Amino acid sequence: MVGPDASASSGTYVDRVAVSWLGPITGYYYRVYRATSSSSSQAQPLSAWQTARSYNDFTAEPGVSYYYWVKISINSAGDYPSAFGRGARGVRALDCNNNGVPDQNDPNSDGDVVPDDCDLCPNTVPGSPVDANGCPPLIPGDFDRDGDVDQADYDLFASCAGGPGLPAAAGCETADFDSDNDVDQTDFAAFQRCYGGENVPADPDCGN
Questions:
Q1: Does this chain's domain 6-91 share its CATH topology with 137-208?
Q2: For residues 75 and 29, is the Cβ–Cβ distance under 8 A?
Q3: What is the pLDDT of residues 121-144, one digit of tens each?
Q4: Three-class SS state of 156
Q5: Are 33 and 70 in contact (CB under 8 A)?
């Protein structure tokens, strides 16, 4: 005997993963198993033997992929359990602002994976990788942390440029790429290596 095929919600609910399956309404008991890998050999029982054909996993961590399987038995003691049916992947939705709405359904102006309410870098250019706060990697010359090095960044660099041996002005520390306390031609050469233009994701290693 083989258990029923499982289905599981993926990013639908912020408080649970909903697992369900098809099977006879009466005469059988079901048990849900879960693992963090797609191998059923790693699966551990998640529920008791039950007659209901659905189960809500409230213990799932948000954003983590889980895999679910179901076995079938003739009674509540689990006698003569079946083999696993086909498994299903499920994910509890992220809800960074705790508003009860999955993050993917919240407003997201820059189109990354972090909604506006939780995005510390809300103007990231398309295609730039971001961290859990919605910010791109630290990139030399990307003074506005939007993932590119463009004219806006050049304008700030130009306002900081002073020349060899002239102490960098307050607020210009990030333009001093070689950390020699001035903003000069050497720093400008590094800036040029990183400059790609508006909406062109920059390489974090561009200054090397």
A1: no
A2: yes
A3: 999 999 999 999 999 999 999 999
A4: helix
A5: yes
Can you give the pLDDT at residue 95?
Answer: 96
How far apart CA 60 and CA 18 sit, in angstroms, is 10
Beta pairing partners, 83: 2
Identify which of 148, 151, 173 has the alpha carbon closest to the alpha carbon of residue 160. 173
Find the Cα–Cα–Cα–Cα dihedral 170, 173, 176, 179, rounded to 10°. 110
C-alpha closest to that of 15 among 67, 88, 91: 91
Domain 137-208 has CATH 1.10.1330: yes
Question: Do 112 and 122 touch, CB atoms closer than 8 A?
Answer: no
**More confident position, 14 or 206:** 14
How many Å apart are CA 30 and CA 40, to the nearest integer? Answer: 16
Q: How many residues does the chain have?
A: 208
C-alpha torsion angle, residues 151, 152, 158, 160 (rounded to 10): -150
pTM for the model: 0.75
Residue whose C-alpha is closest to residue 134's, from 106, 110, 105, 114: 114
- What pLDDT does residue 128 have? 93
CA-atom Rg of the chain in angstroms:
27
Compute the average pLDDT of residues 23-35.
90
Q: Specify the fold of 6-91.
A: Immunoglobulin-like (2.60.40)
Q: pLDDT value at position 146?
A: 96
